[in-house]
């Protein structure tokens, strides 16, 4: 579904008055699904806790409730403005393609006709990243899963998530999406920081390879980075800037930085908000005229129904389990999103 919006653009009040322009609006979103596992035991991964006999008593009923909850959230991201669900959705913490198929087959999303790009990652817990796309909006022309090779102090391999790259055509323009789920802060943020630096370096190599073929390539990266917008992985490695006026040919624009500096977060831990869920882009997507497909604005989707209503964690994301107790919630992360605009000719 193509949404057309009209904006009044002031050309010159004294000579021309106001001119109305019509734009195509596209919504790009990212959502950490917080352990979207099926109920079957995969002998090749550590998913035993998420089975009916496992620690979390992950039954068919609980799985179906999780799918219903997540599909409801995805259907609502940006809808207040766009009047529909997102055109592109990056996902992480999904166990396999089957759970993603169940997600888009739910009545909340079934009529949106989403396609899926997914590869199995070597992550020890068996969680992957994936991309959903509306078939009426986006035509994929290339996709590849890039392996992040990590090793511990003993030289042993640490298995983690791949970085998914999908290229295609959106509103007659070529664009690339990169879906990330960087290494966690397990063991402490300082100790684990080198792992995320490595993830950022891989992300940069992917972007550089695309831009070598086309210096003006439009690339949007998204994901749960397990780092905030001001951390070294973003500021020093990827050279992100929160102010579009500070973006040059070798840097990237990260609209989440400004939000983070205002105290906005996508998850909370020990009374501190972090903004790990981010979407950032190449400068080719910055065009105030919107004559080409370009950034308009971004946000964190955090309506009341996905927030904890009472108690110590009031206002936090309403997760599926809290302290090991089943709470029938959504995720421990809020989704991130942004809007792209393009003027209709």
Task: Describe the 3D structure.
The protein is of the alpha+beta class and 345 residues long. The protein is 19% helix and 34% strand. The strands form 6 sheets. Strands 1, 2, 3, 4, 5, 17 and 20 form a 7-stranded mixed sheet that branches. The chain has a 5-stranded mixed sheet with strand order 6-9-10-11-16, with helices on one face. A hairpin with a 5-residue loop joins strand 7 and strand 8 (157-158). Helix 1 packs across helix 3. The longest helix has 25 residues, at 189-213. The protein is globular, with a radius of gyration of 20 Å. 43% of the residues are buried. Residues 6-18 have low confidence and may be disordered.
Strand % is 25-35%
Mean of the pLDDT scores? Answer: 93
SSE order, one letter for each helix or strand: EEHHEHEEEEEEEHEHEEHEEEEEEE
Distance between the termini: 18 Å
Q: How many strands?
A: 20
Radius of gyration: 20 Å
Largest sheet: 7 strands, mixed
Fraction of residues in H or I helices: 10-25%
Instruction: Briefly note the structural class of the backbone.
Output: alpha+beta
Shape: globular
Uncertain runs: 6-18
Helical region count? 6
Give a summary of the structure in a few sentences.
The chain contains 6 helices and 20 strands. The protein is globular, with a radius of gyration of 20 Å.
């Amino acid at each position: 579904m193509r949404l057309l919006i009209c904006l009044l653009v002031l050309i010159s009040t004294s000579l021309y008055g106001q001119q109305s322009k019509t734009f195509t609006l596209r919504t790009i979103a990212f959502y950490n699904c917080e352990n979207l596992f099926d109920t079957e035991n995969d002998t090749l991964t550590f998913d035993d806790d998420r089975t009916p006999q496992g620690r979390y008593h992950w039954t068919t009923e609980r799985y179906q409730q999780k799918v219903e909850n997540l599909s409801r959230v995805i259907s609502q991201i940006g809808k207040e403005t766009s009047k529909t669900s997102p055109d592109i959705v990056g996902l992480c913490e999904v166990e396999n393609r089957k759970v993603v198929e169940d997600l888009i087959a739910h009545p909340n999303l079934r009529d949106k006709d989403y396609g899926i790009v997914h590869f199995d990652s070597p992550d020890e817990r068996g969680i992957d990243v994936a991309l959903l796309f509306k078939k009426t909006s986006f035509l994929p022309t290339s996709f590849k899963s890039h392996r992040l090779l990590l090793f511990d102090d003993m030289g042993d391999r640490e298995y983690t998530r791949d970085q998914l790259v999908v290229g295609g055509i959106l509103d007659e323009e070529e664009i690339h999406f990169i879906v990330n789920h960087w290494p966690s802060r397990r063991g402490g943020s300082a100790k684990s920081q080198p792992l995320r630096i490595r993830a950022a370096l891989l992300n940069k190599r992917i972007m550089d390879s695309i831009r070598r073929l086309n210096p003006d390539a439009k690339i949007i990266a998204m994901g749960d980075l397990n780092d905030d917008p001001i951390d070294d992985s973003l500021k020093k490695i990827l050279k992100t800037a929160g102010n579009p006026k500070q973006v040059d040919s070798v840097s990237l624009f990260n609209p989440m930085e400004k939000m983070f500096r205002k105290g906005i977060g996508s998850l909370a831990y020990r009374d501190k908000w972090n903004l790990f869920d981010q979407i950032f882009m190449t400068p080719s997507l910055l065009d105030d005229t919107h004559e080409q497909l370009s950034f308009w604005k971004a946000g964190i989707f955090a309506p009341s129904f996905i927030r904890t209503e009472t108690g110590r964690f009031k206002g936090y994301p309403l997760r599926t389990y809290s302290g090991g107790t089943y709470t029938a919630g959504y995720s421990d992360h809020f989704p991130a999103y942004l809007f792209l605009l393009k003027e209709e000719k």
